[in-house]
Specification:
alpha+beta, elongated, 83 residues, two-stranded antiparallel sheet
Length: 83
């Protein structure tokens, strides 16, 4: 919801890969994706640690919190050796 249609997402990945390769020999790239339910205890913290929510109005935050039932973690683990 907050990160839809972000053109800079791909650029960030490429910048990270370039920096990693500058200092390491890339051996493997392991994608890891999983989804977790958002509990009542983590809801407020999760929304407030998200930079794109920092400038949202109170009603927008309430709407985001009401619709947020799960979160997907999507990372890429880079494995390498030092150059």
């Amino acid at each position: 919801m907050l990160f839809l249609n972000r053109p800079d997402r791909a650029d960030g990945r490429e910048l990270t890969l370039d920096r990693f390769r500058k200092h390491h020999h890339l051996i493997a790239s392991i994608p890891l994706t999983y989804t977790l339910p958002v509990t009542e205890n983590m809801l407020d913290s999760l929304v407030h640690m998200t930079p794109l929510s920092w400038h949202q109005s109170g009603s927008s935050l309430v709407s985001i919190q009401a619709s947020l039932s799960k979160i997907t973690i999507d990372v890429e683990i880079l494995v390498g050796t030092i150059r």
